[in-house]
Amino acid sequence: MxxxxxxxxxxxxxxxxxxxxxxxxxxxxxxxxGKDIKKPTTFREQIELLKSRNLLIPNEEEAIxxxxxxxxxxxxxxxxxxKEEERYGSASIHxxxxxxxxxxxxxxxxxxxxxxxxIAFRTHISYLIAHQYGALGYKDxxxxxxxxxxxxxxxxxxxxxxxxxxxxxEHHRKKYDGEFPIWVVIELTTFGVLSxxxxxxxxxxxxxxxxxxxxxxxxYVRSWLxxxxxxxxxxxxxxxxxxxxxxxxxxxxxxxxxxxxxxxTLFANICVMGRLLMDKNEWNRFVTNLAVLVGQxxxxxxxxxxxxxxxxxxxxxx
Length: 318
What we know:
With 318 residues, the protein is mainly α. The protein is 56% helix and 3% strand.
């Protein structure tokens, strides 16, 4: 930690010419706990580093333009796709940039469906609680499995209310003395809070939602929401999906295993999305758009995102 009087020395910087702009340097951070920290490099030095590893750079100015918009470290995640014995073979900076663009468009496609799934579960959960336990039944921990998790949920609700500038929040503050029925307060939740909330419902309530809307059991839906909440956060923060194993894995059916679907892949999460998306016309449009997207980028290796050869047929019948 820095002392207050050290702060003026934390961020010296210099601004140079094209290819050497915004080189930030902090001498106090060169060594942390005895470990040497890599020194910053200019854009042209980054180009030379890529060339030394046999990444093809047909046009250095174009490559610098890419690096000025996309952090070298972020781009490295896609560069490593081609890495073989510390060399990058015949791949070019344009191939790497194409993977980056594919990943960006893929995140946008997925985010749109996750929005619909999140809104649907706000509806499922609030409807069940309202009709099973009353408009304010969510405040009673006895209607949930774990009292501590219930208290965490109430704090999340309170935080959402305090941060919100929505007109309906102010309306309930003034007209109803700050009392928010479940169908109102749930609109202020995140996907993560929603997933935790579903997991803390009584098992019978989880099963009721899962069976009524998705013809499955609550333990499957609980797992799916947890996995998708992580995926949603990855997309929201522009994280890499390509060539990345899932940290949180969804529970799959035995029939999925027969199709050789691995639960640590993006494809497994996409299958889960198909099962939770109630509008099947929208799902079919998604699969069509996904097929078009994959076809647009010849550099994409579908195995890197866990797609089996018959992936489109599987998704059509998920």
